[in-house]
Each structure stands twice: as structure tokens, then as C-alpha cells.
Design brief:
The complex is a heterodimer. By secondary structure, chain A is mainly alpha-helical. Chain A is built from ten helices and no strands. Chain A is globular, with a radius of gyration of 16 Å. Chain B has a domain of 181 residues. By secondary structure, chain B is mostly beta strands. Classes of the chains: A mainly alpha, B mainly beta. Chain A: Pfam families: UreF. Chain A: One of its GO terms (molecular function) is nickel cation binding. Chain A: UreD, UreF and UreG form a complex that acts as a GTP-hydrolysis-dependent molecular chaperone, activating the urease apoprotein by helping to assemble the nickel containing metallocenter of UreC. The UreE protein probably delivers the nickel.
Chain lengths: 222, 259
């Protein structure tokens, strides 16, 4: 294995204590609306998510790992996230990731962003900066962002639908080429200016996240 | 456009420009209004005499593959302009395999006001269009912008449509949204992106003034939501079965502003 691969596994592991397990990435709302019913519809949901929100997040993470100004990226993330519920979630997850990252791979870049955004920066920006602090590449950061973008919903659907975990994992495995493609595009975009980073959006995710945030009872925070 | 067979087949290149400026008597003048090729830019009667109104007339049913069409609209400080359309814009396949490009550039100066309310863009089967809308707003500028996309004519599969809406306010990013739908775009028709809907649209209201209470985030039925942005603006995003139902939701949202 090339150098850094083990570090990337530690960062991308679902057990990395960054709070992601409490979020379904829009899957809970999609299950309720009948848009996710089984492994096939989960696959299509994740594919759409990966190439929209996933690409945008992976590019922000790659740019942060490449050394772009984290505050400019945080502002770019705000402009790419019209839903206040999604912005809140991204910042909450960013704060949790920041705590984990500063214990795991401490560094001055992380300290500076934590001081500038005490309530949390957007999670993909923190993820990218964490990757940088861990000595990983922009492409590594993009891979981690792309993977967690779909592993979250897939894992959540096991609990929401009682989907067989083998089937959910098979969905992730079939999405691997898509994740590679998204990470490659994100890594390429990260070499250009921040304002040209992808801004791919998913209208239904934005709409249903606001509905989900208003539910009185829900299994996942988002 | 090309007649001699020896010439390469290329699309139409056309550029329209509109500039609105205060007329010095409390109204708005149009010192520049030019269109060419498929564009006709007409001054039309404004319901409010202090504002100018321009209508993009029908001839716009034109972006064919390979075409490069652009429109630039400038609203100088203190001027007020409404731009609307007489008919939908229809993206059609062209004689070349190249995509068509449709670029909209909007600039609003300090205290200026722009209503950008064109008719929908319809992506016909086999077409490929890249739309880009960029708005640059000075501090204190106000904007109402509607952007509607209909995927396919009645009963028709859509073409490929890529659209990016970028809005900057006072030099900072306010909104950046990109949509990529139609054959070849991964996952566009399923649960996360459009979920089988054939019309998608946004209405953006940028109003930095003190005004009343900013609108709260809330759903508008099952398939639309009102979302206050991080900066001085509110976005309504909606998906719908067709253009008519989409317009109904976005019109409801227009009542957010009294201006």
C-alpha cells in the first residue's frame, strides 16, 4: 500500500468519532416519502446524492487539503447550501469533526479555523483541513468526503427500513466507481480558484431537509 | 447561417445588451438596448411608471446545439428595471454535436432594483444546453430572479441540461447552485435530485434593506421550500410535475416582497 493509505482508513472509518452516525443524509425523509424502498432505490438515491452534494463536498474538502483559504471555502459552502437546516447540520458536524481532528492530528491550521469559527465550519472544509493536518493529499480528502456522503445514508437505511446490511454494503460497493470519478473530478477542481469549485445541488434534498427538520419525532438528526 | 459546404457548421453567436439608468426625473431610462440574431429586446409598458420594463420577445425559442447566446443586463445605481419574456425558451438539437450555451450576466448597482422574470427554459429531447446565470450585486442592490426549467415538451423525454446560478453580493458569494439533468447525468431522476418530477425552479429574492421580518424557513407543500440564505436573500426551490404547477408555487413566493 502507498504511504498514507492507513491514515486515510482511520479518517474515513465510520467509527471515527465525528458524529456522522446521527445523520441520515436525507435518507430518513426519502424513506418516509417512499423514494427509498429497497436496495435498488437506495442505490439510485445514493448515486444522485454522490454526484450532487457529494461532488460539492468532495471539492471543498480537496481544496481545503490543497491549502485554499478555509474561510473562503466556508463562505463558498454557505453559498452552496441554501437550506438553513443543512447549513446547521454541516456546521454541527464540522465542530464535532474539529474536536476529533485536533486530538488525532493536531496542527496550527486546525487551531486557526477552530478559533475563527467556534460554532463550527462546514464539515467538508474541516474534513479537508484534517486530511492536510494528517499528511494526506487533496485526492485522499475527496475520497473520504465522497465515501462518507453515501455510506451515511446506506447505513441509516439499514436502521430505517430494516434493509439487510449485506445489501446496503453491496450498494456501496457498486457505487465505488462513481466515488472514484467524483473524487477525481473534485481533486481536479481543487487546483482551480475557489469560486469555480463545483456547486452541484440536489433540489429534493434541499426541500425535504427543511421538512425533516420540522418533524416532531425522528430517528436521525438530519 | 453557413451556406457554402466548405465552411464548418457552426451555431449562431448572438449578444444582447440592456442598460438601465436613472433618467434624472425619478424614473428609469434605457440608454442601451440592443439585440441581434434571435434576440428581440422590446421596451414594454410598465405598470409602475418609475420603473422601466423590457420584454424578451418570442424569437428566443432558439438555442440549437452549437449556438452561443448571451445577454448582459446592467442596472445602474438607483435605477429600476423589470425584464420578462413573451414565450418560453426552447432548447433544441442542432446540426452539430456541440452543446448550446446560454449566458446571462446581470449587474445591479447600489440601490438599484432588478426583476428578472423570464419564461421557462424547456429542454427538448436530444438537445444539450449549458445555461449560466451570473449576478453581481452592489451593496444595497435588490433582485428578484426566477429560473424555471422544464424537462421535455409534453410527453417527451428531456435533453441534457446543465445550469449554474451564481450570485455575488457586495463582492462575496451569496448563492451558487448547479443542476445537471437529463440523459447521461448520474442519478438525476431519482430520490435525491428530482424524484421523477419534470419541472424544477428557483425564485431568489435579495433584499438587504431593513424591511420587515425576514421569512422563516418553511416547506411549501411536499415539493417546495422557503430557505433564507446565509446572506441577505431568500430562495424558494420547487420541483413539480409540470411548468404550470411550478409557476403556481413560485408565484406564491413572490408575495414575500412588497416591491
Amino acid at each position: 500500500m502507498r504511504s498514507g493509505a492507513a491514515t486515510l482508513l482511520v479518517l474515513a472509518d465510520g467509527r471515527f468519532p465525528a458524529g456522522g452516525h446521527a445523520h441520515s443524509g436525507g435518507a430518513e425523509a426519502a424513506v418516509k416519502a417512499g423514494r427509498i424502498r429497497d436496495a435498488a432505490s437506495l442505490h439510485r438515491f445514493c448515486e444522485g446524492r454522490l454526484h450532487t452534494a457529494g461532488l460539492t463536498a468532495a471539492a471543498l474538502a480537496a481544496a481545503a487539503a490543497a491549502g485554499a483559504d478555509p474561510l473562503a471555502l466556508d463562505e463558498a459552502a454557505d453559498a452552496r447550501t441554501p437550506s438553513p437546516a443543512l447549513r446547521r447540520t454541516a456546521r454541527r458536524l464540522g465542530r464535532q469533526m474539529m474536536r476529533a481532528a485536533r486530538s488525532t492530528w493536531p496542527g496550527p491550521d486546525l487551531d486557526a479555523l477552530a478559533a475563527a469559527r467556534p460554532k463550527g465550519a462546514h464539515q467538508p472544509v474541516v474534513l479537508g483541513l484534517t486530511a492536510r493536518s494528517a499528511g494526506l493529499t487533496p485526492l485522499d480528502a475527496a475520497h473520504a468526503a465522497a465515501y462518507e456522503n453515501v455510506s451515511g445514508p446506506a447505513t441509516a437505511v439499514v436502521r430505517l427500513l430494516g434493509l439487510d446490511p449485506f445489501d446496503a454494503t453491496a450498494v456501496l460497493a457498486r457505487l465505488a466507481p462513481g466515488m472514484e470519478e467524483v473524487a477525481r473530478r473534485a481533486g481536479e477542481a481543487a487546483r482551480g480558484p475557489v469560486e469555480d469549485l463545483p456547486a452541484a445541488s440536489a433540489p429534493l434534498l434541499e426541500i425535504t431537509t427543511e421538512q425533516h427538520a420540522a418533524w416532531p419525532v425522528r430517528l436521525f438528526a438530519s | 447561417m453557413t451556406t457554402a459546404t466548405a465552411l464548418p457548421v457552426t451555431g449562431v453567436r448572438a449578444h444582447a445588451r440592456i442598460t438601465a439608468a436613472p433618467d434624472g426625473r425619478g424614473g428609469t431610462a434605457l440608454p442601451l438596448r440592443s439585440g441581434e440574431g434571435p434576440f428581440a429586446v422590446r421596451r414594454t409598458r410598465s405598470a409602475d411608471p418609475s420603473r422601466a420594463r423590457v420584454t424578451l420577445v418570442g424569437a428566443m425559442s432558439a438555442p440549437l446545439g452549437g449556438d452561443r447566446l448571451a445577454i448582459e443586463t446592467r442596472v445602474r445605481a438607483g435605477a429600476a428595471l423589470r425584464v420578462d419574456g413573451s414565450a418560453a425558451t426552447l432548447a433544441l438539437p442542432g446540426r452539430t454535436a456541440d452543446p448550446a450555451h446560454w449566458d446571462v450576466r446581470l449587474e445591479v448597482g447600489e440601490g438599484g432594483l432588478l426583476h428578472w422574470l423570464p419564461e421557462p427554459l424547456i429542454s427538448a429531447y436530444g438537445s444539450e444546453l449549458r445555461q449560466s446565470i451570473r449576478a453581481e450585486l452592489a451593496p444595497g442592490a435588490r433582485l428578484v430572479l426566477r429560473d424555471e426549467q422544464v424537462l421535455g415538451r409534453a410527453g417527451e423525454d428531456p435533453g441534457r441540461l446543465t445550469s449554474r446560478l451564481t450570485v455575488r453580493y457586495a463582492g462575496r458569494p451569496l448563492l451558487d447552485q448547479q443542476l445537471d439533468v437529463g440523459p447521461g447525468a448520474p442519478g438525476w431522476d431519482d430520490g435525491a435530485v428530482l424524484g421523477g418530477h419534470r419541472a424544477v425552479g428557483q425564485l431568489l429574492v435579495v433584499d438587504p434593506g431593513p424591511g420587515g421580518e425576514p421569512p422563516q424557513p418553511r416547506p411549501l407543500g411536499e415539493t417546495a421550500a422557503v430557505t433564507p440564505l446565509a446572506g441577505p436573500g431568500v430562495l424558494v426551490t420547487a420541483v413539480a410535475q409540470d411548468a404550470l404547477r411550478l409557476r403556481r408555487v413560485l408565484d406564491e413566493a413572490l408575495t414575500f416582497t412588497s416591491w
